[in-house]
């Protein structure tokens, strides 16, 4: 135990009393010691500072030490503008300034990563003990405990939770605007009003009710008292041992005790409430209620966390709003500039929170506010490890309290040019104003990788050199991944390695990470560098030092050489020198890989589905036309429409063609090419997420269509293609004629058009982005015209629906995707008995267990069955031998008859919503035997490897002394295989059966993260009539507060049908990912009424990500 912690322990009070009594009896009662007290105290502190301090080397003289420490202490007890004085001290004395006997303020930019990163060896300092015996999340000094509690908080601030809070925040915002409007023309203290606003919002989210300060215009007791308590915390920041003594003295501690009595009463009141609206406290309370037994300490921690909800969300928000509006009001041109970017987001008078959150310009204004006025200007308190540590080039002794003063660092010319000026453009159009963006961590913490520590130790192992220091700087602007340049420092054990390396990792944003995982982009790039790059010893790719990937979480790191180079401009186009080098290196690359035909055998390299669903492309094209309007030339609009009309059959032709096949980069343009300086690699090709094994002439056609101007291509295109052909022929073992090259370029002329239309819908809209996408589209259209590609574009034809093969009923080969999943699903409804059953076996070979569920439900019975998220992986016979049950699955006649059974122990829930909350249920004996006989046309999806079959169902389901028999009841079964990320998208899945014999299968899905169009697919079929595929399915759902479905309305096209769905029986699940993500999965059987008066029954599910 260190001295500071000992001084704050309960035992310290006893020792203090004993010491005081002893001194009084032996010394102090003899003589008049009080008259000498000032001299004694001065002598004590001077001796301590000069002789006993460990940090005497950090200021230039003993007088400077004494004056600095006394001055800092005095400021801490008065104006509380310590950060300004610390900045002055750093300007006078340098990067390391001593604030106390064992305290340092460190302004070296390298201290940000060394002290505040997730990989730091430092721990929280003794100041965090200030709330004891209460311990809020922020104050927890135990990293393991903090990590556990943080997961609960993450749920409260997840994407879905924030969306749930949004209506209330909008309501309070409207109230604030109305209050300000009512005082128009009179002076207004905006600091007070922003505090009223932020405290009202966070009070609602913590205590279930507002403080009503915006409504009443009067400061609430809580806000005033909180300010007093936080001021006292500031006083004690450098004399933390005084705090517990102060709180123990009657009268002096009156306000402190009164404040916490108020907080405790609010928590008690909130615990008794049953709010119909979600709030942050709900998640903390849910975790507290799970504890058995509940301890006094856990209640104290809950009270402290409620306090933290309010403080963390109100004080910093109000301060940031105040300073932002100060700059906007005193510099009107900034307000005008911000309005230009933000006003278009409110054209419908509705708040588009998603668009606001993705606005880089709004982010820039907020970032610049936080840079000049960081919420924690002096930095947070950290304690160095006992053995000490290096910070930059300086050794700091162990158990030293250290701060990184953000106010000083953010206004340092080493990090930001013109640092005292408010310049939002440094974050957008003028990045040269930011020298080192890696230091910008306004809330005093920095994370580089969630799963992998880019520590000197890890880097030493990866590189084979003695790395003693590593400084990561984020580079690039990609949204799906994080890329860092790591500047390295070496020790004396070995020779030095590269001066810097580049690390690429998964995005820190949960939604972007989910998209990267579900789309397979992460897996594809990782496997490229693991399996393909080593074959390209002379190829134009970076040197790869290490690739690591966590199978369960999907996190990865690719450590590669830092090939500094020049990136060309996609808008202005390549020069002749750039284009010649790019085509030559591309030909050489394609030829190199053609020597390694084994690459083709990698299943992940082969595309198993089209580039994008046709319905998505139709939506993308619609958006493209609406966005750019008259800027699209009529002749180009016509070409684009023909391409979209033939999209499906065009890509089918590409897949079936006999064109030369090999490694395709997929996005070969200037943005992904680094042109090296002399002496290094002449060209480096990066960003391999879209690579695949396919027609190699995709890449040269794509480059010629997008990376050069039409005039340039008409003059030099044929010569550039010859350069490509010569380089390809020189390195390829297979003869490929120039005629084949020209034919391939012609056929692939539409690929750039597809990219322009798609990208314009998927990334945030900017002026440069608009110019880029229009340029890409126009060039691609001219490329199509020049190559006469319209002559080889297949005409649009009706495409017959796909049907599965008999062999598809069996288990398929697994990929190595961590979320590879093969599932067999079954459902049935008997409306006369008012019951429904659903069954699902989900084999997840790359996880610790598979999923098995078999549930029966209805309005008059409990929800009963087997729920197992860690089932043993079955063999090919699909028999699951669970711990207390056995389940079988067998295609008795492939595509015609399928039997599934289960027998063993299950659980029963009187309230099905309890399943969503993690309830245990009561044990029951369960037995099921159901036969599914095909009653319609089997339907194979076009967009994924899965099929659906409508059925008639016969058999029994029983538990304990209850039994139900099904006779030719209506049902559905499906079979799906491939990577399936339940936490990457929200959806509504349905299988309905109308009384007139019509069967339908309809899905509405929306990927999380960006502004992606929804996916709407399915079919409607009836015996004697052709199956009609749906391409515009939309579902609008109403959910109850307990998470179960209330109603859903489904529309579709091309048939003008609407289904009005009323759930009757509920059998939900709660799906937990290994990385902590949660998806609520309510499933229900329901009755259906159509807009033309027909009725029916069926099952539906809502996958809802938190």
TrEMBL record:
Belongs to the cytochrome P450 family. Its cofactor is heme. Residues 557-734 form the CHK kinase-like domain. It comes from Fonsecaea monophora. It comes from the Eukaryota. This is CHK kinase-like domain-containing protein. One of its GO terms (molecular function) is oxidoreductase activity, acting on paired donors, with incorporation or reduction of molecular oxygen. InterPro entries: CHK_kinase-like (IPR015897), Cyt_P450 (IPR001128), Cyt_P450_E_grp-I (IPR002401), Cyt_P450_sf (IPR036396), Cytochrome_P450_monoxygenase (IPR050121), DUF7064 (IPR055492), EcKL (IPR004119), Kinase-like_dom_sf (IPR011009). Keywords: Iron, Membrane, Metal-binding, Monooxygenase, Oxidoreductase, Transmembrane, Transmembrane helix. The chain crosses the membrane at residues 12-28. The keyword Metal-binding applies.
